[in-house]
Amino acid sequence: MLDMANRAYASIWSRDFSEETMIEQWRALLETVPFSAVRRGFTELAIRAVDTTETPIFGQDFGSGEYGAEVVAELASEHAHEDCAYETAAFWDLWTWDDTGNEWAQKPQPLEIACYGREFDEGIWKEQGHFLIDAGFEHFFTGHARLLGFRRGGAEAARDPEEASFVAVMSQPANLRTYQEKTQENIRKLYDWMARVEKAIPAERYQLWSEGEENLEARMEEILAVR
Fold this sequence. Notes:
Blueprint: E1 7-14, H1 22-30, E2 44-49, E3 58-61, H2 69-77, E4 84-98, E5 103-116, H3 125-128, E6 131-137, H4 139-142, H5 161-170, H6 173-200, E7 203-210, H7 216-225
Antiparallel strand pairs: 1-6, 1-7, 2-3, 2-4, 4-5, 5-6
Helix pairs in contact: 1-2
């Protein structure tokens, strides 16, 4: 699929968040991750102190092992401090266009989940959330070149020839309908995950946002509304 730079994120703010509760809340959030069917478990853990520019004070690559939330949280609990951040990564399955097979397929896509102590990086949690999820490329949830939704930009809005070629193919009625449906499924999967997060932790609120959309949630709602 096209390698577009913009990413989609979920920022989550929690109630009762403190040095005593943050690792347990992070564990509960990690237990909601919808792992890929073929790449289950977390792949790494990094712990940083003070700010994001610092070299991690702890790092572990889990390799191909299927490590769950309990293992990650137990390791993180040994460094539970207000000025620390905890980062892990995993894979989840999203619909994407397979260029080699010229078909849609659910493929493992990387995601990252961070937990920010209240004193880490001068209180970055105020802007980014106590928990920050990098859910993957923005186009998994918005499509390319504003082809989806009601206000379509068309191929002329493509950023480069490769994207223009993809948009031209997807503009064909049958392809466009499938493109719309697969993107809607990705959006619903993200919303379903957020619903589980809200039940798992004392979430105060969450915000879905991206690097390319002024209002990611409004854009996704527009795409979901198309029938």
